[in-house]
Amino acid sequence: MTVIRAIVTDIEGTTSSISFVKDVLFPYAYKRLPAFIETHGDKPEVQHWLHEAAKEEGIVEAPRQDVIELLLRWIKQDRKSTALKALQGMIWQEGYEAGDYQAHVYPEVSARLHAWRADGLHLYVYSSGSVPAQKLFFRYSDAGDLSPMFSGYFDTETGPKRERHSYELIAEALGEQPAHILFLSDIVEELDAAREAGLRTGWLLREPLEIPEAPRHPAYRTFDDIVL
């Protein structure tokens, strides 16, 4: 079997519960987004992402309130928009730093990440959330600061997670042959795309999800079950 040299992991449903993102982070951003944009809207970075959101919607010029309402609608839809994810990340940073919440990780994840690093593997994150949001997630996790475990992060600026080319770009960025990279996710379409790019795959099916009799990818309940 080909030696694994790098592991790229998704977050929601893989290292961490979907409910934390859906029930804690999304409502937090939804409630605070209007005030955040009103108070930070003149900052260049915020202006950039507001402009990108409007451009994504095909809006040439729009009042700030219209863009706010657009972003609120996208939060409700869980829109995979890079602009939205960037702005949410800025809002979440304030929440993490204020101690309003800690990011959830499954009980075995911290120990397994440490063990993989000790074995010489390089660990990376690929999530639809922005890279700054990913870094905050692991820095302020309920298992402590896990950010030193990771050598790099990828988000949708690399490309959509269900497209083969995104994983080809990640392999190129890592300087590894795809066969030496293991991608972990709970979304089978992402795993399909990664496998098409030549990566090895691991399908996380956390309880109460059922593991099919003939899964399309190697399937695991927890990180402790993963066979390298």
UniProtKB/TrEMBL annotation:
Any Pfam family hit: Hydrolase
Function summary: Bifunctional enzyme that catalyzes the enolization of 2,3-diketo-5-methylthiopentyl-1-phosphate (DK-MTP-1-P) into the intermediate 2-hydroxy-3-keto-5-methylthiopentenyl-1-phosphate (HK-MTPenyl-1-P), which is then dephosphorylated to form the acireductone 1,2-dihydroxy-3-keto-5-methylthiopentene (DHK-MTPene).
Cofactor binding, per record: Binds 1 Mg(2+) ion per subunit.
Reactions catalysed according to its record: 5-methylsulfanyl-2,3-dioxopentyl phosphate + H2O = 1,2-dihydroxy-5-(methylsulfanyl)pent-1-en-3-one + phosphate
Keyword Cell division: no
UniProt protein name: Enolase-phosphatase E1
Quaternary structure (record): Monomer.
Entry-linked CDD domains: HAD_EP
UniProt keyword RNA-binding, yes or no: no
GO molecular function: 2,3-diketo-5-methylthiopentyl-1-phosphate enolase activity; 2-hydroxy-3-keto-5-methylthiopentenyl-1-phosphate phosphatase activity; acireductone synthase activity; magnesium ion binding
Gene: mtnC
Cofactor: Mg(2+)
First-level EC class: hydrolase
GO biological process: L-methionine salvage from methylthioadenosine
Family statement: Belongs to the HAD-like hydrolase superfamily. MasA/MtnC family.
Cited Gene3D superfamilies: 1.10.720.60, HAD superfamily/HAD-like
Protein source organism: Dyella japonica DSM 16301
SUPFAM superfamilies: HAD-like
Documented EC number(s): 3.1.3.77
Pathway: Amino-acid biosynthesis; L-methionine biosynthesis via salvage pathway; L-methionine from S-methyl-5-thio-alpha-D-ribose 1-phosphate: step 3/6; Amino-acid biosynthesis; L-methionine biosynthesis via salvage pathway; L-methionine from S-methyl-5-thio-alpha-D-ribose 1-phosphate: step 4/6
NCBIfam families, per database record: enolase-ppase (TIGR01691), HAD-SF-IA-v1 (TIGR01549)
Keywords: Amino-acid biosynthesis, Hydrolase, Magnesium, Metal-binding, Methionine biosynthesis
